[in-house]
Amino acid sequence: MLFLSFGKVRETARLERLAGVVEGLLPEGTELVEARFSGGLFSLLVDREDGPVDHEFCSRVASLVAPALDEEGYDGPVEVSSPGIERPLTKPEHFRRFVGHEAKVRIGEPLEGRRNFTGIIEHAGEEAFVLKLSEGAEVELPFGSVTRANLKEDIYR
Questions:
Q1: Which residue in 54, 55, 47, 41 sits closest to 27, CA to CA?
Q2: Which class is 6-81 in CATH?
Q3: Which fold has domain 92-151?
Q4: What share of the chain is helix, strand, coil (3-state, %, to 5)?
Q5: Domain residue spans in the chain?
Q6: Separation of alpha carbons 143 and 129, rounded Å
Q7: Closest by alpha carbon to 17, among 4, 35, 41?
Q8: pLDDT at 154
Q9: Cα–Cα distance, 147 to 88 (Å, whole number)
Q10: Integer Cα distance of 61 and 45 in angstroms
C-alpha cells in the first residue's frame, strides 16, 4: 500500500485537474503524453498525429493552455515539449501502440526481487503487458504496478 502525505495528495489532485484542463484544449489529433511539476514548471509532453512537435507547435499549445491554467489558479511557467525519442509510456494504449519496441519499466513492488525491467513489449492487454527480457525470459506486468516506463530506442540501429 502506498502512503502519501496530505501535501502529496493535494499536489496529485491539482496535477490531475490541470492535466484535464489541458487535454480539453489540445488541438484535434494531439495527445497529452505526460503532465508533471518539475523544477517549478508545469511541464507538458505532447505528441501529435499530423506533424512534428516543433517549437512553433509547442508555442501554439502553450498559448492555448496558459489562459485556462491561469483561470484554474495556476500562474507559474508552462513548458510544452515533445515526448522525445525515449517517450514515456503512461497509458495502456501506449504499450499497445508500441508492441515490438524496447522499453525500460520500473514497478513499485519488487517481482522476484526486481523492480527494473528492460525488454521488448510482446503483448499488451487490458490489465497487463508482457516484456520479453534480453535473457529470453518473459515477464507479465500489470499496468497498475508500473511507476515509470519509457521507450528505449537505439538511434544507431
A1: 47
A2: alpha beta
A3: SH3 type barrels. (2.30.30)
A4: 30, 40, 30
A5: 6-81, 92-151
A6: 7
A7: 35
A8: 67
A9: 11
A10: 11
Q: Which of 49, 52, 45 is nearest to 28 (CA)?
A: 49
Cβ atoms of 129 and 144 closer than 8 Å: no
> 92-151: same fold as 6-81?
no
Each residue's pLDDT tens digit, 4-50:
333 455 677 888 999 999 999 999 999 999 999 988 889 999 999 88
Low-confidence ranges of the chain (pLDDT < 70): 1-10, 154-157
Per the CB < 8 A criterion, the answer to whether 104 and 116 are in contact is yes
Neighbouring residues of 146: CB distance < 8 A, sequence distance ≥ 6 = 89, 105, 106, 107, 108
